[in-house]
Amino acid sequence: xxxxxxxxxxxxxxxxxxxxxxxxxxxxxxxxxxxxxxxxxxxxxxxxxxxxxxxxxxxxxxxxxxxxxxxxx
Length: 73
What we know:
- The protein is 14% helix and 23% strand.
- The chain contains 1 helix and 4 strands; from the N terminus they run ββαββ.
- The protein has one helix spanning 16-25; strands at 2-6, 11-14, 28-32, 37-39.
- It has a 4-stranded antiparallel sheet with strand order 2-1-3-4, with helices on one face.
- The radius of gyration is 20 Å and the shape is elongated.
């Protein structure tokens, strides 16, 4: 669980997936890493803008083709 401070000053504890969503929505002012607080406006955090990544996206796969097979019945 990760400590966060919302932009309205409220403090909370959230899991990693929810923190990612909050960061994407711009709702978090600060969050706690294992050794220090991160100020979202000043400190480097991972980007959510896909065009900034220039490497190969290994998570995307070619679509699977399904072959229609007649059902006897």
